[in-house]
Amino acid sequence: MADIIKPDLSVVKQIISSGGESLKKCYQCATCSVVCKLSPDDSPFPRKEMINAQWGLKDKLVSDPDIWLCHQCGDCTAYCPRGAKPGEVIGAIRKMTIGHYAFPEFLATMVGNIKYLPLLIAFPVLFLLAVLGATGHLHIPEGEIVFGHLMPHTIIDAVFVPVFMFAAIVFAGGVLRFWKNIHGQCNGKCSFASIIPALISVKLEILAHNRFRKCEVNKGRAIAHMGVLYGFIGLAITTALAVFYLYILDRHSPYPLNSPLKIIGNISAIALLVGITLMVINRFKVKAQAGIGSYFDWLFIWVIYTVVLSGILSEVTRLLGIAMIAYPIYFLHLVSVFFLFFYAPYSKLAHMVYRTIAMVYARKAGRD
Amino acid sequence: MQDILIIGGGISGITTAVEAAETGYNVTLLEKNPYLGGRVIQMNRYFPKLCPPYCGMEINLKRIRTNNKIKHYTLTEVQNITGNEGNYEVTLKINPRKVTEKCTACGECSASCPIERKDDFNLGLNTTKAVYLPHELAFPYRFVVDTKACIKCGACVEACKYGAIDLNMQAETIKLKVGSIVMATGWQPYDASKIDNLGFGKYKDVITNMMMERLAAPNGPTQGKIIRPSDQKEPKKVAFVQCAGSRDENHLPYCSAVCCLASLKQITYVRENIPDSEAFMFYIDVRTPGKYEEFYTKVKGDERVHLIKGKVASIEQDGDSLTVEAEDILSGNKLRVVVDMVVLACGMQPTNGTLNNISRDQNGFISQVQGNGIYAAGVARKPADVSSSVQDATGCALKAIQSVVRG
Question: Record's superkingdom (chain A) (predicted)?
Answer without folding.
Answer: Bacteria
